Amino acid sequence: MSLHNQSNQTNSQREIQLASIVTNLPLPEGVTIRGWTEADFPAIYALSEAEGWNSPRIPQSQTLESWRNSWPVLVIVHEETVIGFLRAMTDYAIATYIADILVAPGWQRQGLGRALLEVCHQLTPLTHFVLMSVKEAVKFYEKDGFEHTIGFSKGFPLPG
Q1: At what angle are helices 60-68 and 41-50 packed, to 10 degrees?
Q2: Do the bridges between strand 73-78 and strand 81-90 make them parallel or antiparallel, or are there none, so unpaired?
Q3: Between helices 11-22 and 112-123, what is the axis angle to 10°?
Q4: Domain extents for the chain?
Q5: pLDDT digits (tens, 9 = 90+) for 105-146
Q6: Which of 110, 120, 119 is closest to 140 using CA atoms?
Q7: For 55-79, how does the pLDDT look when each residue is reduced to its tens digit (9 = 90+)?
Q8: DSSP string, the chain
Q9: Which of 23, 62, 89, 103 is in the most buried spot, having the most CB atoms within 10 Å?
């Protein structure tokens, strides 16, 4: 499949591809990874809020819109409860930007973050990952082969 076609896959084609990838992952009993749905957003937002990620300057509706406009966007669930997620953006050729990745504290250190990254990698196999990290997660990324880089970020005031 060409890169152009990959970026234009339908949601059902993405789900079929995702299901075939997840089938081969060693996940704990009752845990699976799937594409997110808008019904997952309250749980995603609550997990983000518990980590202090949700900025009071960014409305929840704008955060939801960012999820709608991203791919790959994955949730990890245990018996229908969202316990983690990954939100990325890709050009399918060079880079995949990992915007958000989180595993709930009670589920950490079980390989679930690594599983989310592996699924994302298999969905975007030609790209390298680019991400920013909180200090507490640096060891996780270093252990997984990520290297420190120097980058810049700039915020702009919201319109209106």
Answers
A1: 120
A2: antiparallel
A3: 130
A4: 3-143
A5: 999 999 999 999 999 999 999 999 988 777 777 787 788 787
A6: 110
A7: 777 888 999 999 999 999 999 999 9
A8: --HHHHHT--HHHHHHHHHHHHTTS---TTEEEEE--GGGHHHHHHHHHHTT---TTS-HHHHHHHHHT-BSEEEEEETTEEEEEEEEEE-SSSEEEEEEEEE-GGGTTSSHHHHHHHHHHHHSTT-EEEE---GGGHHHHHHTT-----------PPP-
A9: 103
Tokens 């991203």 belong to residue: 70
The reply to whether CATH 3.30.2130.10 applies to domain 3-143 is no
Q: What is the pTM of this model?
A: 0.85
Sheet holding 73-78, edge to edge: 31-35, 73-78, 81-90, 95-103, 128-131
Separation CA 86–CA 17 (nearest Å): 17
Structure tokens at 156: 């702009």
CB atoms within 10 A of CB 31: 19
Which tokens sit at 66? 């960012």
Measured CA to CA, the distance from residue 153 to residue 97 in angstroms comes to 14
